[in-house]
Amino acid sequence: MRISSLSRPVIPAFVFVFAMLAAAQTLHWKIHDYSDEGFTALYPSLPDVQKKSIDTPEGTFELRTYSAGAGDSTLMVGICDYGPVVASKNPDQMLVGAKNSMVANSSARVMSEKKIVLDKNPGIEFEAENGSTHFSVRMYIVQTTMYQTLVASPLSKPFNQTKRFLDSFQLVARTKYESQD
Q: Measured between alpha carbons, how far is 80 from 145 in angstroms, rounded to an integer?
């Protein structure tokens, strides 16, 4: 059987598309339910859970992070419940303070920023970069809890599923609630 000259470009294009689909499928995206923390998110692998103490002007609090790697990128959801200490604080000021702290701790500069809302909860979305890393971040205040979603990628290799991960973050009813006193 002879392949016509018109179909020759189609074969490499088909092979390229097939290879791209195969590469995309190596990440096994799955919704992970953390209803005890009040969220679900789509990850390409089982997230690693870590806890650490963070010091703030209001006191010391526990930050819990759920992170997974995707090639050279890191996808993360962070949760910190500040409890009654911040109940009367302005959510917008808390978001700006958290953004400024993250940017300063990463030696980054903000590239873009806008206010956002998730289920009527105030938030902030921003892009930042330092000498080697690009950060795509969304932060939300839900009552006394701050949720942060983040994708960190090398400047030279942007993660093409950033929006997919950030958009997958959803608030759900908490099955247990542990307030910091």
A: 6
